[in-house]
Amino acid sequence: MATISAAMVKDLRETTGAGMMDCKQALTENGGDMQAAIDWLRKKGLSKAAKKAGRVAAEGLIGALTAGNKGVLVEVNSETDFVARNEQFQGLVKMIAQVAVKAGSDIEKIKAAKVGEANIETAIADAIATIGENMTLRRAAALEVGKGIVASYVHNAVVDGAGKMGVIVALESAGKTDELAGLGRQLAMHVAAANPQALDSAGLDPEIVKREKDVLADKYRQQGKPENVIEKIVESGLKTFYKEVCLLEQAFIHDGAKSVAQAVKEAEGRVGAPVKIAGFVRYALGEGIEKQESDFAAEVAAASGQK
Predict the structure, then answer these.
(1) What is the pLDDT of residues 10-62, one digit of tens each?
(2) CATH number of 59-202+246-284
(3) Residue 149 near residue 169 (C-beta atoms within 8 A)
(4) Fold annotation for 6-47
């Protein structure tokens, strides 16, 4: 029997894009013959992943998972929305989220994490080969508190724990866990709907604040307002801006008469202890990905040699 080295498996995997275990089996079945192993993989439909890698993957699912005082979000992209409804793909997203709870938000650590005999990177490659679309683990986020809980909410859920948008919210408190969980879910739903940019004004990007100041100032300069008046108007305008983009200052979607900060303060009575929002993360599927626009008529013309 031929000796199958790790280098041989690596070379075959890079050539075909097939999973590591599939490459090892292909080499074993074919006595270490590289070309025969490639053909073996092609016949079994496992040599697809490498060919798919150049395609834009902007669909897929956001996976959310919490475990007590920890919570994670992961975005796994596919080329089409159809794949998001594939049970194998859904299982892959859930598996990646489970790994991320332990591995944290570092993409490379998640990919390298073992699941059985293989790792996540291999699992993704295997799914690409089986399903026939490019897939990528695009990003991950993790929150953790010492005392308290991390709550989650998935909007437009395709399956339990995975959908088109996911939110995790971390609450620090020594209070009742069940009350904290209820509050956390309400806050996660609020974040999904209101899309705050930061917890409070101190957490905003200084460039965003500067841009808002400049826009307000220029607006009133064009109206002929004197500079000393403009300064006061800008400060007032910033307060309104903070109420729109800062979580604690936003009107609570479950009770518009209260700010989020007021709602949290009131909840402390039910929780039985002070509550602090330690952080939040909101992922919307495909945000920031530049999707390729397809001109079908142009593609047909090109294929037929027309201009």
Answers:
(1) 888 777 777 778 888 899 999 999 888 887 886 666 655 544 544 555 789 99
(2) 3.30.479.20
(3) no
(4) Helicase, Ruva Protein; domain 3 (1.10.8)
